[in-house]
Amino acid sequence: MVKVDRDAAVSGISSFGLMRAAGHAVAASALRHYPEATRFVCLCGLGNNGGDALIAAAALAGSGARVAVYLMGDPARFTGDAARAFAAVSIPHQPLDTYVPTIGDVVIDGLFGAGLSRAVSSDVAALMRTVTDLTLPVIAIDLPSGVDGRSGQVLGESFQAAQTVTFMTRKPGHLLLPGRTLCGVLQVINIGIPARIVTSHRASLVENTAALWHKAVQVLDPAAHKYRRGHLIVFSGAAPSSGAARMSATAGLSAGAGLVTMVAPTEALPTLAAHLTAIMLRPVDTDEMLSDLVKDTRLNAFVLGPGFGAPDRARRYVAALSDRSLVLDADGITAFRDDPQFLFAAFRGPVRLVLTPHDGEFSRLFPDLAADTALSKIDRATIAAERSNAVIILKGSDTVISEPNGRVAINANAPPWLATAGSGDVLAGIVGAHLAQGMPPFEAATSAVWRHGVAGNKAGEGMTAENLLRAIRPLPRMPSSLARP
Ligand SMILES: NC(=O)C1=CN([C@@H]2O[C@H](COP(=O)(O)OP(=O)(O)OC[C@H]3O[C@@H](n4cnc5c(N)ncnc54)[C@H](O)[C@@H]3O)[C@@H](O)[C@H]2O)[C@@H](O)CC1
Ligand SMILES: [K+]
């Protein structure tokens, strides 16, 4: 947005005009959502977020509403457009520390927006808590104050907004947690920056929607013969822990892999055979048996990790698979905690590896990134993808998917109940199925995460991983014009 603003100014667009449009949009939203408000309380910081709030206050007052304005500091410190707004609106104001939150108030939050750079002060934090305790509705301008727009993290304390009005495009903090929840209902308002300027800076960072991967889906032919829809291999651990890999294999079949074979130690085969019908089984007990297996180049995608145990064997098998498409999950990731570099070195060249860590597993492969609190989830996933030459699916309610050349997607369709035992095994199987069908790794991963979220919503609250398996649905094949950008 900084670059967009700069180009808008260069092209002759008045930045004060943008501020006026922003402030009027906020006022319109306030009147539309809270026509019954006793008074609108506009809290103004000294930056442009406060300038937006001043314009909103003047517009609300002009429409006949009762308005109170509280300023966070000496108005002589306003500069630039905010100073211009302050001069233009001539509206009574009081210091912020005199505000007593009162039932009936609707709070217009213009304390901090994109310029938040440190934790909010204890006084402001106390005010935020009082407003929250009284459950006063808060309309946040651009971002709920206290939320870092870059990371979605809270710096000190934040408002819980009922509505957030932002401008031109969403920022990472609107999608990453906890920012996404703190925004309440998000409105994105066009304040008049030409689309050509916004799209010229379209980041490689997007929400994970069908627009990102539908072209890769279109090349798949669901009617194709099973031998043309790929052959997915899922490794099983010992019999007692084979349930996780069975979940992955079953998900792989449901997600469209033409053939799925589970590879397992001989002792586990009776257990697997008792549970599986459409999935084939093959014993592999030694490294030699594995090298025999991988001579068959029709086996085009592998999932290793769910319930695998055996870290030594995991490392040797992964080394033998380093020229293939591999989804490495769970125990497969943990197996490399002492030497992640070995894993990364094995998968140099064209991207073939998809890693699916939750935060704990991530910290085993990338301890320095996990410990660095200055990094956002997007930064961590991006650097990890570069370092490992893998597509990273950094899981959570706000899963972030990144690839080595810098594309990043934030997923936002997962219901909270998707965080359940076996859910990650299902996801690994779906990714494996997409790889087996020939999707490129980033598209395979993003579409799998999205499909997993859809299945979670379909399965509903209280679902088990078995319900989730049955809720896997075909991927949409929509033209890009219908897909949300
Ligand atoms: N194109 C756009 O996106 C537009 C953005 N506008 C607004 O401009 C805002 C950004 O304005 P600014 O860059 O002036 O930033 P902010 O208004 O968010 O605030 C920055 C000010 O607060 C101070 N500050 C930061 N953290 C603090 C803390 N914890 N405690 C006390 N002071 C703190 C900073 O030193 C700076 O003076 C956006 O959020 C948006 O509301 C609008 O005016 C319209 C155009
Ligand atoms: K704000």
From TrEMBL:
Classification via Pfam families: Carb_kinase, YjeF_N
Coiled-coil regions listed: none
Gene3D superfamilies reported in the protein's UniProt record: 3.40.1190.20, YjeF N-terminal domain
Chain positions recorded as AMP binding sites: 395-399, 424
Cross-referenced PANTHER family: ATP-DEPENDENT (S)-NAD(P)H-HYDRATE DEHYDRATASE, ATP-DEPENDENT (S)-NAD(P)H-HYDRATE DEHYDRATASE FAMILY MEMBER
Molecular function via GO: ADP-dependent NAD(P)H-hydrate dehydratase activity; ATP binding; metal ion binding; NAD(P)HX epimerase activity
Cleavable signal peptide: none
Annotated binding of (6S)-NADPHX, by residue: 48-52, 113-119, 142, 244, 307, 358, 425
Its biological purpose: Catalyzes the dehydration of the S-form of NAD(P)HX at the expense of ADP, which is converted to AMP. Together with NAD(P)HX epimerase, which catalyzes the epimerization of the S- and R-forms, the enzyme allows the repair of both epimers of NAD(P)HX, a damaged form of NAD(P)H that is a result of enzymatic or heat-dependent hydration. Catalyzes the epimerization of the S- and R-forms of NAD(P)HX, a damaged form of NAD(P)H that is a result of enzymatic or heat-dependent hydration. This is a prerequisite for the S-specific NAD(P)H-hydrate dehydratase to allow the repair of both epimers of NAD(P)HX.
HAMAP family membership: NADHX_dehydratase, NADHX_epimerase
InterPro entries: Carbohydrate_kinase_pred_CS, CARKD, Nnr, Ribokinase-like, YjeF_N_dom, YjeF_N_dom_sf
Entry's cofactor comment: Binds 1 potassium ion per subunit.
Boundaries of every YjeF N-terminal domain copy: 1-199
Organism the protein comes from: Ferranicluibacter rubi
Domain YjeF C-terminal, residue spans: 209-479
Taxonomic path: Bacteria, Pseudomonadati, Pseudomonadota, Alphaproteobacteria, Hyphomicrobiales
Oligomer and partners: Homotetramer.
Keywords linked to the UniProt accession: ATP-binding, Isomerase, Lyase, Metal-binding, Multifunctional enzyme, NAD, NADP, Nucleotide-binding, Potassium
Catalytic activity reported: (6R)-NADHX = (6S)-NADHX; (6S)-NADHX + ADP = AMP + phosphate + NADH + H(+); (6S)-NADPHX + ADP = AMP + phosphate + NADPH + H(+); (6R)-NADPHX = (6S)-NADPHX
Cofactor: K(+); Mg(2+)
EC number(s) from the headed UniProt entry: 4.2.1.136, 5.1.99.6
Protein name stated in the entry: Bifunctional NAD(P)H-hydrate repair enzyme
List of residues binding K(+): 49, 109, 145
